[in-house]
Design brief:
This is FAD/FMN-containing dehydrogenase. Its cofactor is FAD. Pfam families: Cytokin-bind, FAD_binding_4. GO terms for molecular function: cytokinin dehydrogenase activity; FAD binding. Keywords: FAD, Flavoprotein, Oxidoreductase. This protein is of the alpha+beta class and 483 residues long. The chain has three domains: 118 residues, 2-Layer Sandwich (Uridine Diphospho-n-acetylenolpyruvylglucosamine Reductase, domain 2), CATH 3.30.43; 114 residues, 2-Layer Sandwich (Uridine Diphospho-n-acetylenolpyruvylglucosamine Reductase, domain 3); 210 residues, Vanillyl-alcohol Oxidase, Chain A, domain 3. 28% of the residues lie in helices and 25% in strands. It is built from 15 helices and 22 strands. The strands form five sheets. It has an eight-stranded antiparallel sheet. It has a five-stranded antiparallel sheet with strand order 8-9-13-11-12, with helices on both faces. It has a four-stranded mixed sheet with strand order 4-5-7-6, with helices on both faces. Strand 16 and strand 17 form a beta hairpin. The radius of gyration is 23 Å and the shape is globular. The protein starts with 10 loop residues before the first strand and ends in a 13-residue tail after the last helix. The structure holds flavin-adenine dinucleotide. Flavin-adenine dinucleotide binds next to strand 6, helix 4 and strand 13.
Length: 483
């Protein structure tokens, strides 16, 4: 008996409507909920396995948002890239929709697929660090990559705030962090990709090779291909970070200094946040979070002296580079311990044009009640020069400076109903669009086909052409709702 058969713990009779629940290696019989005649005889051999059990399908029908639930027919745990190619080819033939899943941390069902196949990329996590770049499989986490590169004195140029996201998941969206004002998004630091297209073809693409596919995949929301590995640029890694937290009385005061320090490239790392003032007064504080890497000795006076934060509010601390990048880990553990991590997260992520940012943020914050954002909800505001964001499908407003505004809502006990939060996202997205803004599509904003056309603007025809060429059956990533 072929040894690979035994790895098919459960197989979905996708396409034929049959449910094959297992293969018994002792008797050589398929275990099936349907009649034997319905079992497709053409299921491909795999090095990994296809799961049909309830636990796997229920997990794949959920994500960090806990708002959308599309139950797949089966979940592929690929044992190799070839498995991904073989199963996508099979699904294309049988017209079965397919979604790659990294960590399932998008919040609006983007990695889900009703009645289709979810490809759990987590089993493909190999990392090969070379001189100045790394070849990393798409299911690896950014924390894995960072841990692998630091011993070689190297680092990815841009890391997301939360490091436990998959390479493929963030490269499908963009991938932004505190160094984006210098190095762009994670998608701007990719040299080459290996992908499986919607026809089941395994292909390598780069700016010089199948450039149309390369540009359609980076920030392309999984529409044209599944990323199986990425060659990402690495930079010499700092060893330390001096972290500053500076508090401002108004959004305008905060963004004025954000604009200034970003323009001057004064810090290595720049972010921003809106926080509730202590004491329950209802007032807000506006935080500029910045870091200088490898500064010895740290020149606090030179870095902060002419900024306009509230004097006496500033905090500074020295951390190792890794601890600085991983500083959210402790908060995440805390949020898990109090149950907030598992609650619904109707998140809104949008890019605002620099000129409209102050007024829009001021009015959004003015209107935002604690119940609208939840107990552990967070408002973030990051300044990023547009020239740093080069990947065409990461759609940002056409101004020199853009701001990423995120309302990380949590439906805590006592907070607004999640459906109300989602509706508020929709209304705010309309305002953002009217002000020339775009969405960063990782959140929970109901988005129509017309919205997507508008979102991709001049790039819509090219994305649509790439879709026709590389996913002609239209089976990939339906959870995004783009096509
Ligand atoms: C706690 C938290 C913190 C975050 N912080 C940041 C941040 O600092 N910066 C930032 O930019 N974003 C951030 N995000 C958003 C995050 O980058 C995106 O939601 C990202 O897509 C999640 O990665 P994932 O591995 O969970 O992908 P999933 O949610 O599993 O997938 C997202 C989409 O990508 C597709 N996809 C997944 N893998 C592949 C692949 N290999 N090939 C093709 N398509 C694929 C899926 O089909 C789906 O459409 C954060 C999200 C959370 C929950």
């Amino acid at each position: 008996m072929d040894d690979r058969l035994t790895r098919w713990t459960v197989v979905a009779g996708i396409g034929a409507g049959a449910l094959v629940t297992g293969f018994d290696p002792m008797t050589g019989n398929w275990l099936t909920e349907a009649s034997a005649s319905e079992v497709p005889h053409d299921l491909p051999w795999l090095e990994g396995r296809v799961r049909l059990d309830d636990a796997a399908r229920a997990a794949a029908a959920d994500d960090f948002g806990h708002l959308v639930r599309h139950r797949p027919l089966a979940v592929l745990e690929p044992g190799s890239v070839n498995d991904v190619a073989v199963m996508v080819g099979y699904c294309r033939e049988h017209r079965v929709p397919v979604a790659a899943r990294g960590q399932g941390h998008a919040t609006g069902g983007q990695a889900q697929v009703a009645g289709g196949l979810v490809v759990d990329m987590g089993t493909l996590h190999g990392i090969d660090v070379r001189d100045g770049y790394a070849v990393v499989q798409a299911g690896a986490l950014w924390s894995d990559l960072l841990r692998a590169t630091l011993p070689a004195g190297l680092t990815p140029p841009v890391l997301t705030d939360y490091l436990e996201l998959s390479i493929g998941g963030t490269l499908s969206a963009g991938g932004l962090g505190g160094t984006s004002h210098r190095h762009g998004a994670q998608v701007d630091n990719v040299i080459e990709l290996e992908v499986v297209t919607g026809t089941g073809e395994r292909t390598v693409c780069s700016p010089a090779r199948h450039a149309d596919l390369f540009h359609a995949v980076l920030a392309g929301l999984g529409q044209c291909a599944i990323i199986t590995s990425a060659t990402v640029r690495l930079l010499p890694a700092p060893t330390s970070a001096r972290r500053y937290q500076l508090f401002y009385p108004s959004p305008t005061a905060l963004t004025a200094d954000q604009r200034r320090v970003v323009r001057e490239e004064r810090f290595d790392y720049v972010e921003g946040q809106v926080q509730a003032a202590p004491g329950g007064s209802g007032h807000r504080l506006y935080l500029l979070e910045a870091a200088a890497f490898d500064g010895t000795p740290a020149d606090d006076a030179g870095l902060l002296g002419d900024l306009s934060y509230t004097r006496g509010s500033e905090q500074a601390e020295d951390l190792t580079y890794f601890d600085f990048l991983n500083r959210l880990a402790a908060s995440v553990e805390f949020l898990k311990s109090i149950g907030e991590w598992a609650r619904p997260h109707p998140w809104l992520n949008v890019f605002l044009p620099g000129t409209g940012t102050d007024s829009l943020v001021a009015s959004v914050i003015e209107e935002l009640r604690p119940a609208d954002i939840g107990l552990s909800g967070v408002v973030l505001l990051y300044p990023i020069p547009r020239r740093r964001l080069r990947a065409p499908l990461l759609r940002v407003p056409g101004e020199e400076l853009v701001f990423l505004l995120t309302l990380l809502r949590t439906a805590s006990p006592g907070a607004a109903d999640p459906a109300v939060m989602v509706e508020a996202n929709r209304a705010l997205y309309r305002r953002v669009q009217a002000a020339g803004g775009t969405q960063y599509p990782v959140g929970t904003i109901p988005t129509t086909h017309a919205d997507w056309r508008r979102h991709f603007g001049p790039w819509w025809p090219r994305l649509a052409a790439a879709k026709r060429a590389y996913d002609p059956a239209g089976i990939l990533a339906p959870g995004q709702g783009v096509f």
